[in-house]
Amino acid sequence: MVQRVAVVGAGSSGLVCIKICVDEGLDPVCFESSDDIGGLWRFKESPEPERSSIYRSLVVNTSKEMMCFSDFPMPANYPNYMHNSQLLQYLRLYANHFDLLRFINFQTTVRSVVQRPDFSLSGQWDLVTVNRDGEEERHVFDAVLVCSGQYNHPVLPLSDFPGYETFSGKFYHSWEYKDGDACRGKRVVVVGIGNSAGDIAVEISRSAEKTFLSTRDGAWVMGRMSSNGLPLDMLGMTRFNELLMQLYPKTLINWAGETALNQKYDHRLYGLKPRYR
User: Fold this and answer.
1) Which residues are CB-contacts of 31 (< 8 A; sequence separation ≥ 6)?
2) Going along 40-170, which residue ranges are E strands?
3) Which tens digit of pLDDT belongs to each residue from 5-45?
4) How far apart are CA 94 and CA 89, in angstroms?
5) CA 38, chain centre distance (Å)
């Protein structure tokens, strides 16, 4: 008997899981709570509760050479680092090429996933789903692949900032951010120095009166491009470099990397140098 596999979510991971299940002779059934594929990469004008959210200008930080699926290269006319709309289009091309949409139940939310009473013998799972009409349905599956993402719940630790109750300005998480229009002419501080913080601080600085980037520990800041204008990840993530990482002392590797980064800008001079190597 062909094993039935539940796939929760039709983003990039969910689509790949459907495709691989088909390749392996399994029977995948995908449940997607929204009305479309793409997950994180589907831009929406307003953030929706319980869903991931991206800003309008977001460009991926993994090159197409390293990001594409091995059995479906990205179009040659795509840039090395794509705008989020191009990545969504790539996922649509992938889904259409492998005829994956027929396996997806849209606007269907998975409410619960529990082991069956005879799980030790059958290895099966009970799933409860709710469709767009609010109708509940129960299913039995031989396996479950959870592809629902990890950026659905923004963390805004306001209690860690004494005096926030009396702050008259607006504070919000990058999950809510769409573009810099709301910050035009204002004084803005961006807290954190992850990829989103760097992107947003740069974008806001073009229209805000003043923009500050606040970092507690600093960071080693790397651009997307390497020597000769080639993608950094494509040149850096190679078997040869992995071999060097194993052969050379870590202290030497850290020194070489930090020296290269400091040639672009002195991290100590800019107050960016972290405690870690």
Assistant:
1) 6, 7, 8, 9, 104, 105, 108, 109, 110, 127, 129
2) 104-106, 109-115, 125-130, 136-141, 143-146
3) 999 999 999 999 999 999 999 999 999 999 999 999 999 99
4) 9
5) 11
Residues 96-128: tens digit of each pLDDT: 999 999 999 999 999 999 999 999 999 999 999
Nearest to 271 by CA among 205, 231, 217: 217
CA dihedral sign, ordered 152, 42, 195, 171: negative
Cα–Cα distance measured from residue 65 to residue 60, given in angstroms and rounded to the nearest whole number? 12
State residue 150's pLDDT score.
Answer: 87
DSSP string covering 189-229 = EEE--SHHHHHHHHHHHTTSSEEEEE-SS------SB-GGG
Phi, psi of 235 (to 5 degrees): -80, -30
Q: How far apart are CA 195 and CA 87, in angstroms?
A: 18
Q: Which two tokens stand for residue 166?
A: 């009396």
Farthest CA pair distance, the chain = 66
Closest CA to 19 of 104, 122, 131: 104
Beta strand segments in the chain, E: 4-8, 27-32, 104-106, 109-115, 125-130, 136-141, 143-146, 187-191, 210-214
Partnered with residue 129 across adjacent β-strands are 110, 137
121, containing H or E segment: helix 119-122
Q: Please give the backbone phi and psi of residue 209, each rounded to the nearest 5 degrees, phi first.
A: -65, -40
For residues 219-247, b (16+ Cβ closer than 10 Å) or e, as one string? Answer: beeeeeebeeeebbbeeeeeeeeeeeeee
Residue whose tokens read 């991926």: 60
